Amino acid sequence: MKRNTVIIADDDADDRYLIGEALNIVGQRRKILEVEDGRELVDLLANDNPNPELILVDMNMPRMNGVEVLDAIQAFAGYGDVPKIVLSNDSQNAQKAYQAGADGFYTKPVTLDGYLDVARRILKKYLGGEPPKPLI
């Protein structure tokens, strides 16, 4: 089964929306599943088998933070090859994220252009593609 779903776990609805839209703007459209916290993400993975192509996790969320989510995902079969990317407002969290099993870490941008830049880097590195060339 082809994977074309990106899961975004972030307690900030604006951040979920911006990174999801940025990914779709710079690459082929993908199904975006949004969850509001780490517990909801773990429940989704355990019960619904969404077959994600990529999982984006905010480091600081209620109920389960990014490190706790990554620890929980390690226990599930079938998600080992799915890139798990952590987003955080604090670059000091990078080491914790990598130690917990993150495949990538990005500091959350504060502008739309910043989100587009992060989305381009994620597309190129983890989703196997180059952003389409703009029409001139």
From TrEMBL:
Domain of life: Bacteria
Modified residues (4-aspartylphosphate): 58
GO biological process: phosphorelay signal transduction system
Family matches, as SUPFAM superfamilies: CheY-like
Residue ranges of coiled coil: none
Entry keyword set: Phosphoprotein
Segments forming domain Response regulatory: 5-123
ATP-binding listed as a keyword: no
Protein's UniProt name: Response regulator receiver protein
Protein source organism: Dyadobacter fermentans (strain ATCC 700827 / DSM 18053 / CIP 107007 / KCTC 52180 / NS114)
